[in-house]
Each structure stands twice: as C-alpha cells, then as structure tokens.
Amino acid sequence: MHTSLFWKNHFENNLKNQRIDWGINPNITEHEKTQILYSLKAWQLGETSDGSHLLKATSKYAHEINDLEYIEAVKLFIKEEQKHGSNLGKYIDLIGESRKSKDWGDTLFRKIRYFNTNMELWTITVIIVESAAQLFYKSLEQATNCELLKSICKDILIDEAHHIKFQNERLHIIFNQKTFYSKILSLIGYSILFFLTIHTVWFGHKKAFIAGKLNKTSFMKQMCYKYFNTLKYIHSHTTITPKNMKRSILNLTT
Ligand SMILES: [Fe+2]
Ligand SMILES: [Fe+2]
C-alpha cells in the first residue's frame, strides 16, 4: 500500500521515461492492418479522454477523506493515459491512416462516465478496463511484426501494470471502509460490471485478440484471474505505516 505522494512521484518520474524509438520506420503489413486496425483506432480514441468526470469524482472524494494529493496523482494518471492515446495516434498518422472520432464502445463508456460521480464505481470500472487493456496490448504486440508498434505496446504495458496497482490500492481503501452488508452489495455490483465489460470488450475486439493468439476461453480465463487478484487484494490486510511509506519513496528514488 502506497501513499498518494508516492503515486504522484511515480507518475511524475514515469512521464519522463521515453521508451519508444520514433526513429524506427513503421512496417505493418496490409494483412495485419485488416486484423487489428479497427481495434487499434478504437483503443486510441478510448485513451484520449480528457478525464474531466473522473477528476470531478476524485476531487469530491479527496476532499471528503482530506487527501488532496490524491487529486494530483489522478491528474498525472490521466496524463499517462493521454500519452498512450497520443502515441497510438502518432502511429496511426505515420502509417497513413485516419484516426477515429467516434466508436460505439467509446460512446458507451463516455455515457457511463458522464453519469458517474462515485469514486468506488470509477475505481472498479478503471480496474476492469485496465485489465482488458493489458490483454489487448499484449495481443496487439503479438499480432504484428512492426517493431515500432511493438515498442508502443510494450511502453503501454509497463504503465498499465502500475495503473492496476494504483487503482487496486484505492479500491482496497474504499472497500474496507464499508460495512459487511455494503461490502456484499459492492461485490455483487463489481461482478455484474465485470461480466458485462469482459463480454463487451471481447465481442468488440475479438478479431484483434484472435490475431494476437488469444482465443475467447483464454481471454475469459485471464480476465477472471486478474479480477480474482483484485478481489484477493481488497480483502488482504495491508495498511500504510510510516515504515512502508518511507520504503515506497526510497524504492522510487533508487
Ligand atoms: Fe492506457
Ligand atoms: Fe491505464
């Protein structure tokens, strides 16, 4: 468990890391394009949200718990997502394709985001979508021989692993402030959301997943594994102590 200050420092430092060599020429084949371009454009659009609704919910929540640094951490988290959108967009431009400005999946999630002012709902939604993103970018990397696209995917995957940890920790805090019955209701809600999201993602992007050698059974299995890890984590006994807070900051700076 890390403090908001830790995460703020983590995102600040991570944003300075330039892991993509833009000097590499993109060499995606026409065949690869037919398999992945639709999904690549859709995820690119999804990564470009301005995050205003998430920030609104974050600000309300952070003031309630008196942890204003959490707002700064979330602002940087959004910036990192926008970096993914910008890198994928730059790639789409480089291969001479046009970016998408509308996608049914993006519209659906934007509508949900618009009405959502609850930090708990935001956090579990982000965790599920980030878990699917991990499988998507792994598949995308597998589905192409283009070195540039592979390195963009690798960069995103490094960031996403931290995003899930960041959000899991927040969900742990929120979940453990609940009463027993309220926890049960939350778990039912998380599971319905999980079930609906994984099917939406699979049916929207199965062509790209299959191109990356991930079939439906493996996708569902791996998503369940990730989801159960989140459930395990929020039920674990972990607290912020001055000792592990100090260790976290030391780990970050070494
Ligand atoms: Fe992302
Ligand atoms: Fe992410």
Please describe what this structure looks like.
With 254 residues, the protein is mainly α. The chain has a single domain, classed as Ribonucleotide Reductase, subunit A, CATH 1.10.620.20. The chain has ten helices and no strands. α3 packs antiparallel against α4, α6 packs parallel to α8 and α6 runs antiparallel to α9. The protein is globular and about 55 Å long. The two termini are 18 Å apart. The C terminus is likely disordered. One fe (ii) ion (FE2) binds next to α4 and α7.
User: Secondary-structure element order, as H and E?
Assistant: HHHHHHHHHH
CATH superfamily: Ribonucleotide Reductase, subunit A
How many domain regions? 1
Output the CATH class name: Mainly Alpha
Bound molecules: fe (ii) ion
Mean pLDDT: 90
Number of helices: 10
Short description:
Helices cover 78% and strands 0% of the residues. It is an all-alpha fold.
Question: What features would you highlight for this structure?
Answer:
254 residues, mainly alpha, Ribonucleotide Reductase, subunit A, 10 helices, 0% strand, globular, disordered C terminus, binds fe (ii) ion
List the helices and strands and how they pair.
Blueprint: H1 4-15, H2 30-46, H3 52-65, H4 69-94, H5 104-115, H6 119-142, H7 147-175, H8 180-211, H9 216-234, H10 242-253
Bound molecules: fe (ii) ion (2 copies).
